[in-house]
Specification:
- The protein is about 25% helix and about 30% strand.
- By secondary structure, it is α/β, with parallel strands linked by helices.
- The termini are far apart.
């Protein structure tokens, strides 16, 4: 849990063990509005219960990309709570109520977002900079890692550019909150990853591409059901 007394906001990380997904519950203490980033369908009741118990209203869900390893709860939450469902303009999620594009700025209470289009893991991947301090990097940048680029239109060239030219241009002290973790990490900073990330720190594009081409990762278990379901905001029949 991250509490920012100056900004009067709180960030609560919520984990899904099966998919290794971090869902982030963002709370604006003044307006009592909340936002969920990358919510997981199987964890919807947990997330909704926490929001209600804390006395907040869910204003919006934001998916950082079309997930292949889990189904979003955005659509069901939208129906249950009358919240909005935000997605990338490149996502193909026709059910979303708001489509985000690069360098969009929007606010929900004191939660002030800047949208960064960071393709590479998927063409629609985006990252979210909150109040100029906290980066929700989705599947672009992990703690000492990054998202894979071998399916769903992924591109190592695009991801290298997204990380080195866009994310690594942010201040060193920017706190990075990734979309996934499989090793027990919650957060990192831009400065740390620029220095220590084994896949990209100090690597040329050709070196990065060689690393990404030889990961030999298994296909996500839910890819065939998750991707079409996520285009419908998780509203599965």
């Amino acid at each position: 849990m991250i509490t920012d007394p100056i900004e009067k906001i709180e960030i609560r990380p919520l984990y899904d063990l099966e998919s290794g997904t971090w869902t982030y519950l963002l709370l604006d203490k003044t307006s009592k509005l909340s936002v969920l980033i990358d919510p997981v369908l199987e964890r919807m009741e947990r997330d909704l219960s926490q929001i209600q118990e804390l006395g907040y209203t869910l204003s919006a869900t934001i998916d950082t990309h079309m997930h292949a390893d889990h189904i979003t709860s955005a659509g069901v939450l939208s129906e249950k709570t009358n919240s909005e469902a935000f997605a990338s303009e490149h996502s193909g999620a026709e059910c979303a109520s708001k489509f985000l594009k690069d360098e969009d700025l929007f606010s929900i209470g004191d939660l002030k977002f800047r949208v960064l289009h960071t393709p590479g893991h998927t063409p629609c991947s985006l990252s979210l900079l909150l109040n100029g301090k906290y980066l929700f990097s989705g599947d672009a940048l992990f703690v000492r890692g990054c998202g894979r680029t071998d399916f769903q239109g992924g591109s190592a060239d695009d991801l290298y550019k997204s990380i080195t030219e866009k994310l690594f241009s942010l201040p060193d002290e920017t706190i990075v909150l990734p979309g996934h973790d499989y090793k027990g990490f919650l957060s990192t900073t831009i400065g740390e990853e620029r220095k220590w990330n084994p896949r990209i720190a100090g690597k040329s594009l050709s070196e990065f591409k060689e690393i990404m081409d030889n990961l030999n990762l298994p296909e996500p278990k839910k890819i065939h059901e998750a991707v079409p379901a996520n285009r419908a905001c998780g509203k599965v029949s």
